[in-house]
Amino acid sequence: MQSRSLWAKFTAAALVLMLSACGGEPPVAASRGVVTSASPEATAAGVEILRQGGNAVDAAVAVQFALGVTEPAMSGLGGQTQVMIRVPGKEPVMINGTSYAPSGIPAGKLPDGALKTGWTAMTVPSTVRVMDFAQRTFGSGKVSWAKALQPAINDAEDGFKVGRFRALVYARHEEDLRQSATAAPIFLPGGVLPKEGDVVRQPVLATTLKRLAEAGADDFYTGEIAQQIAADMKTYGGWITAEDLASTPQPEVVPALHTTYRGYDVYTLGPPAGGWVMLVALNLLEQVSPDKLNAEGVERAQALLEALDLAHRSRDENSAVSAEAFAADLAARIKKGAPPPSTPAPHYGGETTHFSIVDANGMAVSVTTSIDSYFGSRAVSPTLGFLYNNYMQSLDEEPGHPFSVRPRAAPYSSMSATIVMKEGEPVLVLGSPGSARIISAVTQVTSHWVDVGAGVQAAVAAPRVHVVPDDDGRDNAYVEVMPEGLDVEAMGFDLVEPKGDLKIDGLNAYFGGVHAIGLDHGVWVGAADPRRDGAVGYVDPPTEEH
Q: Is 43 a catalytic residue?
């Protein structure tokens, strides 16, 4: 296959990542901050916190909880969150906010489907602890936890208007919700499916958020909310215990993974997230002549397909070893011209959401947050009003694997929240939902912004491709908009058409939902993916009176 020719060009130097100019939009005055997220309500929440004097992390808390209310199929209190933060004057770091499997997993073979949906499919939620830790560690000190949660409380009490994409998601999963005794009363009130333009209110969740705002994040793990969660588990046969909640660790601040791409420094999430695969794809693209990547068309599509194929294959073939061992082994093999080792790969799949924020001082925050599949486990706390995740499906049922099902295992994910720097300053902040398509989407938007140079809005809106390695040696290729002259079968791929029920104006949410902010001639410009319901919000620049 033609894509294999890139392998020889993938030098050992490119794997340092594992060991260790734009334009086009009209300038927008945004000297006090930019927020872009997957719902207009969440974006407005972040902008409001910036206007109150909060920094990007304070705003991120508001956006996180508002998304859990207004985009409940993708994230919420019952999920997990990974964060990239760039503090002015420092390199970006990662807050590793992974969730963990509960301690009460029964021994022996598990019932079919136990890890997919229902009350045994969930890891111990980490989102509340992660956002509390982020604000306590990096927040401005000017905005309280309670104030940051207030927009989400308002959205839950007063309701939000269902957007086009969210209505499509409700429609796709109507039957899933109807079959869930706990989800149906919350998300199909009166048995009615929410449609575009409808106002959805969540009074039970509003009460939970008020309790969380007043009592603090620890209440979710050791207080009244924790007691309710433990009671849910006993009632419905879940595996999470009060001890699991109480022992949820504080997140860790760890160095981000780093590589360079055409003179830019790219920082992203390390394992158990999937950012390293995105860096591999960028390193492969850097071996391609820039004139093949500087315009949309057949040559750019071919190069992307080839690079993404090899990057995703390296993930499948090496995900059963640690990142450090993989880097050392692969670097040695490349020097010898040998292919990578083949080892079992874990399951990875699901849905998610992403938001990006830059404040007036240059603090940049890139956050990917999820309950895994659309509507997660489809199990809802009747007394708390939020969905639990189904991240247990991302663990491997084969014993002896680093991501095997066992107590306290961290699930594998494709999250690739990213911050791009130039000469020590951030220039691009981005990430995406979409399971393995996250890696493909972030790779393509980053390359488009650098190589095509048409600006962040064009980079986010540009059609995308994706490749899924298959056991038969002929990988499946997905092409959102087919460039004239592209023949994927001749490249050795099988062309597959993704489901089209989430298409908006010809673009398909299957290919991700990137929310990005890019520096354009010294001015920050935001982009919300047209495949979703997202919005960009700008904080008004200071007036002369200020």
A: no
